[in-house]
Design brief:
Blueprint: H1 18-23, H2 26-46, H3 53-60, H4 67-80, H5 83-94, H6 108-144, E1 149-154, E2 157-163, H7 164-188, H8 202-207, H9 212-225, H10 242-270, E3 274-275, H11 295-319, H12 330-356, E4 359-360, H13 362-376, H14 378-387, H15 392-411, H16 419-425, H17 436-439, H18 449-464, H19 468-483
């Protein structure tokens, strides 16, 4: 990261990955502006405008700003009250042969908006890679615990059994949808290109003496030089702020997914069934030494709420863009766009950290199952009695009475669930007592959960993580782990 990446960067960037923090840093922003000016000059020269090779070379050799140039730009901006023109002047001081042609025919949004689109596309790529690593980690967790029975919850009340791995697939499935949505948003992004002050390309038409074909060729060539496959066919002075809505929507949706996952982990930590990583020297509370607070998951929930709210800014900003443009979008976007990406980046890195160190407590899980399973097993017991020649209605009444007695022990006396012991002592159930252990095996209550995990990982996760870009990101993450 450059020394000037912390200059005027959002506070959250201090906690983001180096690549995401650098993406929205001033040094990268102004480097990108200079690259855009260079590409514009190259294209204009190719199409016949009198721009010297020396000008192009000086621009190429001075794309990175030095500390001294940051100071010059700051002084110029204070004097001119215009950030783009301050940097046009600053660039000209180190590329004097190009000073007269930098920004030729362009409006400020040529650099500001095109740079933003570059940042959005690159930021989405970073998120695709980080999200893929998280999915890979949780998939390994799901495979490891594919068949471990655990009590299911509906309304946070005990429900039919599932498995620890199957529950994790519910998290992963939503993350796969987030991956799809982020990839779609990235791949759909276009370029503003060279459109002029109100999008009519009038200035460029004048530069090329009314040659419409050359103006169209200029737009296409600059778009190509900047690495985009197409430019938006029409724009105002800016690219439509609706694009920001489309980009921030999948990030907000990711925030909802992350909040749900982290909340589930927090609830499981309360139940002492699963915990996030907790270092040996970590302190959970300044007063209560025994505490093991799920602080990472709580952080994810906190940041996720922030991420979800940022999308509202994009919606409101897009809705109030008057005619060809108004400037009340600028200050908002300078905060909202970087914050959204930096926040999403931190959420993913935190969740990945949690996923790599999740601790499962099978004995606690088993004890909770034992407390609830007798009630859930009543239908199996009734069916077994019927198969042994008994009467269903009579069996149902017997179980109903014993269940209420056991419930009284649990709810009113605070004792363990002794329904099965009551069944064992009742002569009515003698024909099936030899099969009770089999009838109470938790694995017989999870249905196809283990097979669902296997099928989901093979048919949905593996294909989603099969691209070279994603495989490379996952491998790079593993290499980093091995080097630590």
């Amino acid at each position: 990261m450059d020394a000037f990446d912390t200059y005027q960067t959002p506070l959250s960037s201090r906690y983001a990955s180096k690549e995401m923090a650098h993406l929205f840093s001033p040094s990268n922003r102004f480097y990108t502006w200079r690259t855009l000016w260079l590409n514009l000059a190259i294209a204009e020269r190719e199409l016949g405008l009198p721009i010297s090779g020396e000008a192009i070379e000086q621009m190429k050799n001075n794309l990175r700003l030095t500390p001294e140039q940051f100071e010059v730009a700051a002084r110029e901006e204070k004097k001119r009250r215009h950030d783009v023109m301050a940097h046009v002047h600053t660039f000209g001081t180190v590329a004097p042969a190009a000073a007269g042609i930098i920004h030729l025919g362009a409006t400020s949004c040529y650099v500001t908006d095109n740079a933003d689109l570059i940042f959005l596309r690159t930021g989405l790529t970073y998120l695709v890679r980080s999200l893929s690593v998280l999915i890979s980690r949780l998939s390994a967790f799901a495979a490891q615990y594919r068949a471990l029975p655990t009590l299911g919850f509906t309304h946070f009340q005990p429900a039919q059994l599932t498995t620890v791995g199957k529950r994790a697939t519910l998290w992963i499935q939503e993350l796969l949808w987030d991956l799809r949505n982020i990839q779609r948003a990235r791949d759909d992004l276009g370029f503003r290109g060279v459109k002029g002050t109100t999008g009519t390309q009038a200035s460029f038409l004048a530069l090329f003496d009314g040659d419409h074909a050359k103006v169209e060729a200029l737009d296409k060539r600059v778009t190509e030089l900047c690495g985009f496959t197409y430019a938006y066919p029409v724009t105002s002075q800016t690219y439509s702020r609706k694009i920001d809505i489309d980009v921030l929507a999948p990030l907000a949706s990711l925030g909802a997914t992350a909040h749900k996952i982290a909340t589930d982990i927090r609830l499981l930590a309360h139940l002492k069934e699963i915990e996030e990583p907790f270092e040996s020297t970590q302190i959970g509370s300044s007063a209560m030494a025994y505490k093991r607070n799920p602080m990472r998951s709580e952080r994810v929930c906190s940041l996720s709420r922030h991420l979800m709210v940022l999308h509202q800014n994009a919606l409101m900003t897009s809705s109030v863009q008057w005619f060809e443009r108004t400037l009340d979008d600028s200050a908002n976007r300078r905060i909202t766009l970087p914050e959204a990406f930096l926040t999403a980046d931190i959420i993913l890195s935190t969740l990945t950290n949690v996923s790599e160190g999740l601790v499962v407590y099978p004995m606690v899980i088993g004890r909770r199952i034992a407390q609830e399973l007798p009630f859930m097993a009543t239908e199996n017991i009734i069916m077994a009695i019927v198969k042994a020649g008994g009467d269903r209605q009579e069996a149902h009444e017997k179980i109903r009475i014993l269940s209420h007695e056991a419930a009284h022990q649990v709810k009113n006396l605070g004792l363990e669930n002794d329904l099965i012991e009551r069944v064992r002592k009742d002569p009515y159930f003698d024909p099936i007592k030899g099969h009770l252990e089999e009838l109470l095996d938790p694995k017989s209550f999870v249905g196809r959960a283990p097979e669902q995990v296997d099928g989901f990982l093979k048919e949905w996760v593996d294909p989603a993580l099969s691209t070279e870009e994603i495989k490379e990101a996952i491998q790079k993450s593993r290499n980093v782990e091995l080097s630590v």
